[in-house]
Amino acid sequence: MKRVLGFVLAAALAAGTAAAETLPSSGTWKINNWVPGESVQMSMTRTKGNSRWKHSTSYDLEELKGLTREQLRAMHGTVAFRLERDPGTFVFEGTTTMGVGSGTFRFEASPTFLAKMAELGYGSVDDEAVMGMAMRDVSLDYAAEVKKLGLEQVGVEDLFAFRDRGIELETIREFASAGIPSLKSRDIIRLSDHGVNGRYVQGIAASGLAEAGVEEIVRFHDRGIPTEFVLRLVEGRKAISGEEIIRLHDHGVSASYVAQVDASGFKDLTVEQIIRLHENGVD
């Protein structure tokens, strides 16, 4: 299930220096069952001193082992339930009253998870990161699949960034298979932040444009340049640059117009000359 995640961290300030305190692996929870469908909205909060961390997202009720809809919507009752993840298990206790619940939780880390992550090549992972992976449901299978895609220097913080942005594994796979050299996790994030999907990246990469790197792709996408436009220009003018493609698009010059000029025996005209012809109404 795709989720929207929310995180808040307030760091303490001491003697003019930001000093985020180490937060405990336990805290409080609140739940609201008065939402449509088969999910519940739950938040978890941890605090220590002036530091505060909050996570809020929705869960399928079946994920919360030991908690039923009847318990949630009862007039009043005590509850105990678990959320099990590869990195560890969240154990909850508390009370519910007519669809609203609250109480305390603690996180119990898996005794084998760190060793398995090291086997996958993720190196040292601290306790806070383990809990963060459990919050985001970063499974061993997910971590392994990301590693297999061949991204440069992918780490736990990259898994967090993918999860927090809702970047699906299939999207990462599409980006990685597009043939962009030396693709890094931050490239995946930049493409996603600009709304670029895997099909668009593959389309630009398949055009044969020599400069088809991440920044060029982002610039094309931000301007609404179709992949077909790039492909036709590259097919007609092998040495055309990304900047020239942007200039033609910005001036409303179609790929068909460029092809028409070239077919008329003016293949040696520069892009700027073609733009001037177009602006002067030369057909």
Radius of gyration: 26 Å
Oligomer: single chain
Count of strand segments: 10
Distance between the termini: 54 Å
H/E element string?
EEEEEEEHEEEHHHHHHHHHHHH
Question: Structurally, how many domains make up the residues?
Answer: 2
The percentage of residues in β strands lies in 15-25%
**What is the percent of helical residues?**
25-40%
Which overall shape is indicated by the principal axes computed on the Cα atoms? elongated
Structure in words:
- This protein is an alpha+beta fold and 283 residues long.
- The chain folds into two domains: 6-150, no CATH class; 185-279, no CATH class.
- The chain is built from 13 helices and ten strands.
- The strands form two sheets. An eight-stranded antiparallel β-sheet has the order 1-6-5-4-10-9-8-7. Strands 2-3 form a two-stranded antiparallel ribbon.
- β5 and β6 form a beta hairpin.
- α6 packs parallel to α8, α8 runs parallel beside α10 and α10 (227-236) packs parallel to α12.
- The longest helix has 10 residues, at 227-236.
Characterize this entry briefly.
With 283 residues, this protein is of the alpha+beta class. It has 13 helices and ten strands. The protein folds into two domains: 6-150, no CATH class; 185-279, no CATH class.
Keywords for this structure?
single chain, alpha+beta, 8-stranded antiparallel beta sheet, two-stranded antiparallel ribbon, elongated
Topology:
Elements (H helix, E strand, L loop, with lengths): L5 E5 L2 E2 L2 E2 L7 E7 L6 E10 L2 E10 L3 E2 L3 H4 L4 E9 L2 E10 L2 E10 L3 H7 L7 H9 L4 H9 L7 H9 L4 H8 L8 H9 L4 H9 L7 H9 L4 H10 L5 H9 L4 H9 L7 H9 L4
Antiparallel strand pairs: 1-6, 2-3, 4-5, 4-10, 5-6, 7-8, 8-9, 9-10
Helix pairs in contact: 6-8, 8-10, 10-12
